[in-house]
């Protein structure tokens, strides 16, 4: 059964911006607002978007209220999360995502926003976008590869990627619903009511600013919980700014993942350009995707719903 595809955007539609995690400033978001306006969209900012409560963009209640207002506002066609950091998990119990199911719209973000993707895809059957966020939009009004690709996906252009081979790739073919996001967030959701089924699905993972032994621990958690054994394919994005101890761990992030999954007969793609580095190309989570990995290249194509 395929998930629900939210309506694609038309010129003049409204995009809402919320901050469900770390705080942001007006200056941080001006490039994104200028770019989206230049692309022909109206931009609506949440009432507490620039609020601050210690590290967070307002209290848990304020951040949840902002997201629910955007979900319930019929004029808002897509909801762009301003940044990640930490804090989205704290508002999950304050949300009524049944209302999003009744009136689907694109939820966009990555990193800490992975916890929303997990719920939206796994429990409410709605597609969402793992993509760049306003905190990353460039100063140039013309945008960059990540922002321009986001607009294309939001307007319904077919999405596919062809990538060069990576030495650690494992060949094969797979089809399944794409799930995933930030490895740290996925690991933190294991065993909670916000976790989702990995069975028969293609998993995407990325991460930033972690010690290598943390990466190994989180990958082992996914493995020992049976999640890695149950997936049909794996796509690995950026693992940015990895850290090591004085005594080296002995493997880099990609080698850690390869060691954990090499025993499974599934296609594995390393080096997909998404995550905490540029470019951060969009992925439609919750949609069926074809993954083909051979000795020359990788092809990733999403089912077109138009």
Architecture overview:
- Belongs to the peptidase S66 family.
- One of its GO terms (biological process) is proteolysis.
- The chain is an alpha/beta fold.
- It has 2 domains: 14-154, 3-Layer(aba) Sandwich (Rossmann fold); 160-302, Glucose Oxidase, domain 1, CATH 3.50.30.
- It has 9 helices and 13 strands.
- The strands form 2 sheets. It has a 7-stranded mixed sheet with strand order 6-13-12-7-8-9-10.
- The chain is globular, with a radius of gyration of 18 Å.
- The mean pLDDT is 97.
Q: In which range does the helix fraction lie?
A: 25-40%
CATH topology heading of the largest domain: Glucose Oxidase, domain 1
Strand content: 15-25%
Number of domains: 2
**CATH class category label of the largest domain:** Alpha Beta
Report, as a whole number of angstroms, the end-to-end distance: 17 Å
Strand order of the largest sheet: 6-13-12-7-8-9-10
Order of helices and strands: EHEHEHEHEHEEHEHHEHEEEE
Q: Roughly how many Å is the radius of gyration? A: 18 Å
Number of separate helices: 9
Low-pLDDT parts are none
Quick structural overview:
The active site is at residues 111, 206, 276. This protein has 306 residues and is of the alpha/beta class.
Identify the notable features of this structure and list them briefly:
Rossmann fold, protease, serine protease, alpha/beta, serine-type peptidase activity, 23% strand, 6-stranded mixed sheet, globular, hydrolase, LD-carboxypeptidase
């Amino acid at each position: 059964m395929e998930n629900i595809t939210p309506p694609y955007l038309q010129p003049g539609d409204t995009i809402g911006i919320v901050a469900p995690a770390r705080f942001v400033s007006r200056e941080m978001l001006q490039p994104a607002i200028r770019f989206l306006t230049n692309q022909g969209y109206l931009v609506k900012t949440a009432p507490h978007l620039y609020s601050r409560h210690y590290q967070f963009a307002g209290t848990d209640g304020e951040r949840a209220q902002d997201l629910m207002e955007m979900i319930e506002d019929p004029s808002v066609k897509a909801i762009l999360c301003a940044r990640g950091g930490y804090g989205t998990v704290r508002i999950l119990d304050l949300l009524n995502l049944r209302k999003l199911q009744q009136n689907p719209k694109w939820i966009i973000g990555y990193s800490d926003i992975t916890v929303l993707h997990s719920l939206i895809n796994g429990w409410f059957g709605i597609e969402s976008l793992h993509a760049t966020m306003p905190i990353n939009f460039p100063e140039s009004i013309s945008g960059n590869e990540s922002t321009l690709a986001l607009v294309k996906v939001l307007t319904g252009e077919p999405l596919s990627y062809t990538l060069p081979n990576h030495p650690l790739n494992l060949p094969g073919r797979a089809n399944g619903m794409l799930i995933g996001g930030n490895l740290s967030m996925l690991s933190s959701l294991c065993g909670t009511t916000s976790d989702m089924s990995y069975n028969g699905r293609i998993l995407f993972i990325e991460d930033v600013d972690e010690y290598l032994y943390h990466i190994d621990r989180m990958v082992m958690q996914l493995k020992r919980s049976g999640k890695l054994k149950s997936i049909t394919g794996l796509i690995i994005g950026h693992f940015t700014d990895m850290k090591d101890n004085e005594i080296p761990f002995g493997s880099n992030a990609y080698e850690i993942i390869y060691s954990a999954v090499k025993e499974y007969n599934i296609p594995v793609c390393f080096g997909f350009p998404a995550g905490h580095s540029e470019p951060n190309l969009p992925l439609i989570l919750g949609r069926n995707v074809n993954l083909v990995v051979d000795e020359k290249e990788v092809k990733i194509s999403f089912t077109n719903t138009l």
